[in-house]
Design brief:
Number of strands: 13
CATH class of the largest domain: Alpha Beta
Structural class: alpha/beta
Strand content: 15-25%
CATH superfamily of the largest domain: Thiolase/Chalcone synthase
Number of domains: 2
Strand order of the largest sheet: 1-7-6-4-5
Length: 350
């Protein structure tokens, strides 16, 4: 059976974008008194981020996060923020992806959504069905709380759905509102997470027809690394645990894993025309690039998306794939992302 086509990729971000200065003002305002502003400045300078979409109001009397002396928003308030922004961004991205794909709304058979920054039911999937005029009997799958690599998990579901049902067309949408989970904390990993994460959405149409092929996906849970990264639900939003050893783990393991996955398709690293590596942060990109022996220019797209948009969790990888497509980058493309577990996910586009 032929591999399905990636018929379109479209993206969306919040209306508000925080540049470096505005971010530092917001971070300084909401950080506990014991956090030195010099620390915030250093983290921002090392982040590789110049601007990022932010759904949380950061200024004025309606600021979502006020001073450290004000009550911290509870999880319910953060979920309400997620719901408003995720629906709006998802609809914009999905409407564009649908229009660019050549697939009519009535032809969509599956809606696959992904987010690790919020939950509600009816959720983003139901909103897309109603707002886009999709069939009411469309099959729905939500990939929840898997982390930054969830776009690959969602594409795997879409690929299987289209391969198993002639004429199927799957709309994939990743929508993340990471700024609903800023923490007023002096913990270094919380400060790092605050500095890196951002909001965005991406939608992709997977169906039969012309276009790049979703040739396969591959997964690897790295044993003994669960302590390095975790994402948990708390009374005041979701909390990220980031271990300092993540780059070292990736440096040691990514090369052999990717070699094995490519070999299943009769490919080698040298065969890959474009690399879409999820920018968990500059050190993650450095480690993956070194593990794969990639020249610096191979990760220019990943660094550009990080610089212009920040780490949008699961939505980030499609942003990079779109950049490869728009630039006419020769295929195959290898998309890599990593999340709690530690788990690596890879999608091969040919």
């Amino acid at each position: 059976m032929n591999d399905p086509a990636l018929r379109s990729i479209a993206t969306a971000v919040p209306d508000d974008s925080l540049g470096r200065d505005r971010w530092l003002a917001a971070a300084d305002q909401m950080s506990p008194p014991e956090v030195d502003r010099k620390v915030l400045v250093r983290l921002a300078e090392r982040s590789g981020i110049d601007a990022r979409g932010c759904s949380a109001t950061t200024e004025g009397p309606d600021a979502f996060y006020r001073t450290h002396a004000d009550p911290d928003p509870g999880t319910a308030a953060r979920m309400a923020l997620w719901g408003r922004s995720a629906r709006a961004m998802a609809e914009r991205a999905a409407r564009r992806a649908l229009g660019e794909s050549g697939v009519a709304p009535g032809e969509v058979t599956h809606v696959i959504t992904a987010s690790c920054t919020g939950f509600e039911s009816p959720g983003v999937d139901a909103h897309l069905i109603e707002s886009l005029g999709l069939p009411s009997n469309v099959r729905r799958v939500n990939v929840g709380f898997m982390g930054c690599h969830a776009a690959v998990n969602a594409l795997a579901v879409a690929r299987d759905a289209v391969r198993s049902r002639p004429g199927a067309a799957a709309l994939v949408c990743c929508a993340e509102v990471s700024t609903a989970h800023f923490h007023r904390s002096a913990r270094l990993d919380h400060l790092v997470a605050n500095t890196l994460f951002a909001d965005g959405a991406a939608a992709m149409m997977v169906a039969e027809g012309d276009g790049p092929r979703v040739a396969g996906t591959h997964s690897a849970l790295i044993p003994g690394t669960a302590h390095e990264m975790a994402w948990t639900v708390g009374d005041h939003g979701f909390s990220m645990t980031l271990g300092a050893g993540v780059p070292d783990v990736l440096l040691r393991t990514v090369g052999p894993w990717v070699d094995g996955a490519l070999a299943e398709h009769g490919l080698r690293r040298e065969s890959v025309g474009g690399w879409a590596v999820h920018p968990g942060g500059p050190r993650v990109l450095d480690a993956v690039g070194q593990s794969l022996g990639l020249p610096a220019e191979a990760l220019h797209g990943s660094r550009a998306v990080l610089r212009e948009h920040g780490n949008m969790s699961s939505a980030t990888l499609p942003f990079i794939l779109k950049r490869l497509a728009d630039a006419g980058t020769p295929r195959p493309w290898a998309g890599l992302a990593f999340g709690p577990g530690l788990v690596g996910e890879m999608v091969l586009v040919t």
